[in-house]
Amino acid sequence: MTDARGSTGPNGGAYPPGTPCWVSLMVHGMDATQEFYGALFGWEFQPGPQQLGPYVRALLDGREVAGIGQLPPDRHLPIAWTPYFASDDVDQTAATVRHCGGTVGVGPLDAGEAGRLAIGSDPTGAVFGIWQAAELLGTDLTGVPGTPAWDELLTYDTESVAKFYEVAFGYEERPVASPDPDTDHVTLHIGGRPVAGIHGMGTALPRDRGPHWLTYFETTDTDETARRVLDLGGHVLTPPHDTPQGRVATVADPEGAVFALVHMER
User: Fold this and answer.
1) Closest by alpha carbon to 20, among 158, 133, 183, 160?
2) Helix/strand/coil for 31
3) β-bridge mates for residue 56, sequence order
4) pLDDT per residue as tens digits for the range 190-207
5) How close are the terminal C-alpha atoms of the chain, in Å?
6) CB neighbours of 89 closer than 8 A, spacing ≥ 6?
7) Residue 212 burial (C-beta neighbours within 10 Å; 0-12, 13-18, 19+)
């Protein structure tokens, strides 16, 4: 993780290609999930495109910050937050993903008037989305509690997958300075600004999950929000702790979707 998401989407027009622009969660219990995140982050909800089944957009102060959809009852897929990366041409980006050794499992397809999307995975299996904006540019509010703050890929090692993301999305890779020479951590930059990270964890990567993207959500008090997760039926996986970027905790909602909380010192 680094100091800033670096996106220019909210209040500034379309997100530059490659920038994380949206996060979406597919679950089995839509009502219970909305109750959890509504109580945790103060989100309200309105219907969104139904091309992939029931779907709502989460709103904070009337502005779109995330999406939640319902998995078909016969689909036993991992419950996980998925970041979407902006693209000017989702069909071309999807073709590049395939050419670089990734897969495209959904789409490209139209999401009503909102835009066009695809869902793919990198060569190690980490799932991500691709978003070509039309009416929905992406997350419309950042930098306040309850909004996405950062997306980071947790994988075995950065070298094995960084080149894929560089070619597929046009990132510039930069190592993260650390006093520990064994730290395997890079940031991905667009236009000179950090937009996402890759953290190589080696054998510390959870075997039951494999490589995956982790979304951080902003909070005013990491400790209090982590306690609130527990009160609402979720789980604390990594207790709150201080990092150079702020106080961080890793948690999971009642269905098991993992996400991180961060209070950034600004």
Assistant:
1) 133
2) helix
3) 47, 68
4) 999 999 999 999 988 988
5) 15
6) 132
7) buried
